[in-house]
Each structure stands twice: as C-alpha cells, then as structure tokens.
C-alpha cells in the first residue's frame, strides 16, 4: 500500500480478498486499523452474474446447471465451483472475524446500491468518517443498463456509468435450478444475517 499522510484515506478494491483464506491475516499484519467494506448481493443472482461474465469470455463453457450441480437428479450442489462457493458469505466472514472485530466492517447491500445509491453511499461515508459529500443529486438511473450512474460533475466530463461488463442480460435459468439454489443458500444467508446483524432480504 502507498504511504498515507495524516488526514488521507487510502483505499484498495479487490473483491477476491473476501474469499481468499490468507487475506485476513495478511491485512491484519499490515494494519489492524484497516476498515473493511464488503458489498454483497443475493448469492443466487451473484452466481448467475458470475456465470454470465465467464460465458461472455468463453461461450463454449457448459450450461449453468451443469456447473452448479454435482448431481442434478439428487439436487446436490457443487460447492467446488467458485460461482457457487463465493456466495457462502457466512463461511468467508467466519475467517475474517478471527482477525477483525465486526466493528471494522461495513456490509453494503448490492441491491440497495442499485435502488438507493445515495443512501448506501451515505453509510459508506459515515463509516469512513467522511463528510457526506456524495448525495442523491449525484446519481441518475440508466434504464438501458439497469444501474444508477454518476451525473456529470460541475465543469467535468461526461456522466460516468459502470463499464460494458455490468448490466449484461443474464441467460435464462430454469426456475427449478434457481429454486434449488435458493434452498441451498437459505441456511447460510440466515447465519450471515445473524453474524452481521443485518437482514438483506434475500429469502
């Protein structure tokens, strides 16, 4: 990490940290005062989104259900597939809580980030001890992408939207497959709600 002067905040964004076993210990050893922001969304939607991203780069991969299930007839989920494993948030958080107390975390709802970006950004600014500068006047909803975008800053450049990889239409997944995944994640979601003290409303 770069040197940080008094009054500065240095931020780093790497989604894989949350699911990398060694990351909590390494970050703790670097700075136990680190504040951690974790953006989570419904793990079923997250798995389908992950698959959509991979599919766009490699159209010859097997179907979603072929990768999600070890055995489709018994409904046995393949937790070795990263798209499924990442959504078991309670398991990953367990690993982090061995090094950092819950007070060092802010859990941001991916769904609320879309429906109320200013509200979630308000929580982020409060957590970081920053003045609330980013408000609802900074966002507009882009119908094409299905995501909020940042409005043009005063005297600045064009409005800023998420890149091409965001807002892609998801492939049609059989409802039975979706239902089975919901059942699979439910106990993990409930544990995650208890651990964080936050109900994300995925069930």
Provide an overview of this structure:
- Residues 30-186 form the Sulfotransferase domain.
- The longest helix has 22 residues, at 175-196.
- Helix 5 packs parallel to helix 8 (175-196).
- The chain is 39% helix and 11% strand.
- It has a domain at 16-128 and 174-196: P-loop containing nucleotide triphosphate hydrolases (Rossmann fold), CATH 3.40.50.300.
- It has 8 helices and 6 strands, in the order αβααββααβααββα.
- The chain has helices at residues 23-30, 43-57, 64-68, 82-85, 89-97, 110-115, 117-127, 175-196; strands spanning 36-40, 69-71, 76-77, 105-109, 139-142, 147-150.
What brief labels describe this structure?
203 residues, globular, Rossmann fold, two-stranded antiparallel ribbon, alpha+beta, 39% helix
Q: What's the name of the CATH homologous superfamily of the domain at 16-128 and 174-196?
A: P-loop containing nucleotide triphosphate hydrolases
Q: What's the count of strands?
A: 6
- What order do the SSEs take from the amino end to the carboxyl end, as H and E? HEHHEEHHEHHEEH
Q: What is the overall silhouette?
A: globular
The CATH top-level class label of the domain at 16-128 and 174-196: Alpha Beta
Strand content: 5-15%
Largest beta sheet, briefly?
A: 2 strands, parallel
- Assign a percent range to the helix content: 25-40%
CATH fold descriptor of the domain at 16-128 and 174-196: Rossmann fold
Distance between the termini: 38 Å
Please tell me the overall pLDDT. Answer: 90
Strand order of the largest sheet: 1-4
Low-confidence stretches: none
The number of helical runs is: 8
Backbone structural class? alpha+beta
User: What's the architecture of the domain at 16-128 and 174-196, going by CATH?
Assistant: 3-Layer(aba) Sandwich
Radius of gyration: 19 Å
Disulfide bonds: 149-161
Keywords: Disulfide bond, Glycoprotein, Transferase
Domain Sulfotransferase: 30-186
EC number: 2.8.2.-
């Amino acid at each position: 990490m770069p040197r940080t002067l008094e009054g500065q905040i240095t931020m780093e964004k790497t989604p894989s940290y949350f699911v990398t076993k060694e990351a909590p210990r390494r970050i703790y050893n670097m700075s136990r005062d680190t504040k951690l922001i974790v953006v989570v969304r419904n793990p079923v939607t997250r798995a389908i989104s992950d698959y959509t991203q991979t599919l766009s780069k490699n159209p010859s991969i097997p179907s979603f259900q072929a990768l999600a299930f070890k055995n489709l007839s018994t409904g046995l989920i393949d937790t070795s597939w990263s798209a499924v494993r990442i959504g078991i948030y309670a398991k990953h958080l367990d690993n982090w809580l061995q090094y950092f107390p819950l007070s060092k975390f802010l859990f941001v709802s991916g769904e609320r980030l879309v429906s109320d970006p200013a509200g979630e950004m308000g929580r982020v600014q409060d957590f970081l001890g920053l003045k609330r500068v980013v408000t609802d006047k900074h966002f507009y909803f882009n119908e094409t992408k299905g995501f909020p975008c940042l409005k043009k800053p005063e005297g600045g450049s064009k409005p800023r939207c998420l890149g091409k990889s965001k807002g892609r239409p998801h492939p049609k997944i059989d409802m039975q497959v979706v239902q089975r995944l919901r059942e699979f994640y439910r106990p993990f979601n409930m544990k995650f709600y208890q651990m964080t003290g936050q109900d994300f409303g995925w069930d």
